[in-house]
Design a protein that fits this description.
Keywords: Repeat. By secondary structure, the protein is mainly α. The protein has helices spanning 10-22, 26-38, 45-57, 61-73, 81-93, 97-109, 116-128, 132-144, 151-163, 167-179, 186-198, 202-214, 221-233, 237-249, 256-268, 272-284, 291-303, 307-319, 323-335, 342-349, 352-357, 367-379, 383-395, 402-414, 418-430, 437-448, 454-466. It contains 27 helices and no strands.
Amino acid sequence: MVDNQYQCNHITYGVVINGLCKANDSIAALTLLRLMEKRQISINVNMYNMIIDSLCKEEQVPKAFSLFREMIDSRRLVPGIVTYSTLIHGLCRIDQVNTALGLLKEMMDNRIFPNVIIFSILVDALCKDNKTGEAFKLLELMQQSGVEPNVITYNSLMHGLCLSDQLNKAITLFKDMITQGVMPNAHTYTTLVDAICKKGMVEQSQELLERMIARGAKPDIVTYSVLIDRYCLLGKMDEARRVFYSMVAKGHEPDIFSYSILINGYCKGKRVDDAVRIFEIMSSNVLTPNTVTYNTLISGLCKSPDIFTFGALIDGFCDNGSFSEAMKLFHMMERNGLKANVVIYDIVIGSKELFYSLSLKDLQPGTRTYTTMINGFCKKGILDDAQNLFNRMEQKGILPDDHTFNIMVQSYLVKSDIHKALQFLNTMEERAILHHAETISIIVDMLAADYPNHESRDRLRNFFLKK
C-alpha cells in the first residue's frame, strides 16, 4: 500500500496488527509496531494489548512482559484492566504466580481496580500451587474491594481444599456458596463427587449427584465418569453399569474415556466377556479405542485367553480402522497357542483396504503381518490375492521368510498348481530357505497318489529326488 503511495494511518495499522495476532503471528505484529514507531505513527494501548495477548497465547510471556514494561516506561501509555488481566493470566500459566501478584498490587496502587476475572485467575493459580491459605486471603481482599466471587472463584477454592485433603472445609464452602446466591455448576459437583469418592464414600457421592439433579443442575459426563470409576475400583461393577446407563438415559453420549473405565473395571474383575461387550458397543458408536483401552483389553486377555473374545476384539479394531492394533491382537492370540479360525481370517481379509492404507499413515507392516494376510487369502482359496500381496511385499523390500514361502507352496500344491509350486520351491532353494515338514508331507502324498498329470508329477519327483 505504501509503495502505491497510499497513506496508511494508525487505524489501518491497527487492523493489520489485529489480523496478524489472530493468525498467531505475534512476531510479524511486533515488527509492524516497530515500523509504526520508525514512521512516527501514533500507537495506542489497544495495539499493545493485542500483541501482549498474542505473545501470551504463543507462550512467549517474557516477551509480553518486556513489551508491557516498554509500554509504560518508554511510551508513557497507561495500561488498563485488559492489559493487566492478559498478562496476569499469562504469568499464572507459566507458574509465575508471585510476579502476577506483584502486578495485582501495582494495578491497585495505580487505582486500576481488578475485576472478578483477575481475582479468580489468581485464586485458581494459588490453589493449584497448593497455597490455599493465600488464596483465601486473596478472597478476603477481593470482597473488601467490593468484588463478589463467582462460581469459578468458588470452584477453584473447593478444588484447592480437596487437593489439600480438607474435604470438610470444601463442603462448608459449598454450602456458603449457595447461601451467597451463587449456584453450583457441573464442575462444582464433579470436584466434590471426586473428593468424596476418594474418601471411599461412594454412596454419599451418589446422594450428592441425585441432589444435584433434583435442584435442576445437570451433571456432565465427567461427573458421571468419576462415580463410575470409583465403583469400578471398588469392584462394584453392577453399580458402575447402572450409573453408566443412567448417564446415557440422561442424554449424555459416552466418550472413549467413560467406555475405557468400564472396560478396565470388567477386566480387573476377570469379566472379560462383559468387557468385550462394552468394547463392541463402543465400536458400533464409531469410537476409536485409545492406547489405554487397547492395553486394558490386552491385559484382560492375557488372564483369560479365548478364541471368540480375540475374534470379537480383532473385528472391533478392524471396524474402527485400527488395523495395526488388530494385527497385534492376532499375533498375541498365536503366542497364546490359539489357532485362528475361518471367522477370524474372514475379518482380517475383509480389512484388505485398511492393510493397504497403513503405508499412507506412516505405518509399515512387516514380514509377519504380510504373512498373516497371505495365509488368510490362502485359507480362503484366493491365491491370486495371495500372490499379488507376495509380489507387493518383495517390491517394498520386505523379505518373505520360511513361513511365507511354505504357505504359498502348500496352497499351490493343494490347488494342484504344480507349476506355481515349483517356482516357489526353486526360489526357496536359491535362497536356502527350509521346507517345513508339512510341505514335505504334502509332496510325498502327491507322489504316492495316482496323480492324473504325469508330467507335473514327474517334475515334482525330479525336484524332490534332487534334494
